[in-house]
Amino acid sequence: MKVGVIGTGYVGLVTGACLARVGHQVFCMDNDTAKVERLKQGIMPIYEPGLEELVQQDVDSGLLSFTDSLATVVQHAEVLFITVGTPSRPDGSPDLSAVRAVARSVGQHLDSRYRVIVNKSTVPVGSGNWVRMLVEDGARSPVAAAAGDGGVAVLQAPPELHFDIVSNPEFLREGSAVWDTFNPDRIVIGAESERAEQVMRELYSYWVAPEEPDRTPVPLVVTDLASAEMIKYAANAFLATKISFINEIANICERVGADVSRVAQAIGLDKRIGNQFLNAGAGWGGSCFPKDVSALVSTGQEYGYECSLLRATLAVNDTQRKRIIEKLQRELRILKGRTIAIWGLAFKPHTDDIRSAPALEVATQLLNLGCRVVAHDPIVTAAQAQVQVPDLQVTPSALAALEQADALVVMTEWPEYAQFDLAEVSRLLRGRVVVDGRNCLKREAVQGAGLVYVGIGR
Ligand code: UPG
């Protein structure tokens, strides 16, 4: 099939590359011409394991191409994915201006051939209808005739449109997005018509109707538009709540002398609970959970419902970062004038994404308290981090960050942090305190090196 992907961010690029890999002809479009040029040269805008190789192979096979021309994509593709960003506005509601602009422009370029327009960006419930309206509005707008008309806009009669809107939420985790795309737990399609559903079944046939007998079909859930949109929010809100729940349990564990790791392990063995997303720590960040939980609260409010559980999920997450500062204060007493080393800036390992990263929030709070903060991350660069926290010092060596530091705080569980020689860590640190904000170090080993170990809920 011929597929257009509008927006080459995380979701768009990964989706486009994976669909090309299974044999579709994919056109990835972005209005950032410089980004398109870099993609053509094989330079990825994000760090994601396996993506660069995949894109390169797809480009070599001729199945993946990049363009900045929306007209080209709309003309060639029978399925059009909208994968542009929907960041949070200050009040927590999502900023849909990019979706609005793309939907209208798609409408302006549509002709009378049938198209399926797929919302893959996480958009509030009800957006499917709204996108339909925008596409229709776009189609009614004046269209300038092609180049060579001397710049004079020529009014053309709007074509008779044949299109359906589909909601097809993504469930990709940064750091394993390519793997997740090839191995999804389910594929969700919210479709307006049987015709659109059939197109999507064919598009995803590699997953839902595999030809190889040894591959198990991925469950396909077909719903109405609103339910598909809700599934995405409900999944992220549930996962975020699960983490806030275990963080709350951790906070009680600390007070009663229990170990949250053992508690999580045991409750996770109950299949009704499940053992994933039960790691207590400094809280969740990233581009999805904070934005999506806030957006769901905002949708509830819009429709006259107060989301008290989800507000608590957000509140627990917010205070969880402050607990790192409290722990430092408890150990060091005065924080003003102290040097604190932070290991890990990305919101989680195997990504360079620092959006809503707990590490940067903790660094900001420490700087505001008069500390000097020296951080290390295996991938995030000083330039990247300093856009958000200008006074943060970032060193390319994890061990160098420890020199003259009164305490070490581990904020991202990069595997290499658990492998350092703790005797060396102990020798370099001026102070004795190690706050393990991700429970990723071995407590006994840290203590064995003469350091004070402070974990979360243990
Ligand atoms: N986290 C914990 N404890 C856990 C698991 C995760 O604190 O037990 C934190 C993690 O450190 C990170 C955040 O939770 O800060 C989110 O982690 P993760 O879900 O792995 O990352 P994302 O890439 O943000 O993926 C989420 C959903 C994915 C969805 C995506 C965008 O997992 O299904 O597609 O958001 O909506």
TrEMBL record:
Membrane-spanning parts: none
Key words, A-Z: NAD, Oxidoreductase
Residues covered by the UDP-glucose/GDP-mannose dehydrogenase C-terminal domain: 341-443
Family stated for the protein in its record: Belongs to the UDP-glucose/GDP-mannose dehydrogenase family.
Gene Ontology terms for molecular function: NAD binding; UDP-glucose 6-dehydrogenase activity
InterPro entries: 6-PGluconate_DH-like_C_sf, NAD(P)-bd_dom_sf, UDP-Glc/GDP-Man, UDP-Glc/GDP-Man_DH_C, UDP-Glc/GDP-Man_DH_C_sf, UDP-Glc/GDP-Man_DH_dimer, UDP-Glc/GDP-Man_DH_N, UDPglc_DH_bac
Name of the protein in its database record: UDP-glucose 6-dehydrogenase
Residues the entry annotates as binding NAD(+): D30, K35, T86, T122, E174, K291, R355
Enzyme class, broadest EC rank: oxidoreductase
GO biological process: polysaccharide biosynthetic process; UDP-glucuronate biosynthetic process
EC numbers: 1.1.1.22
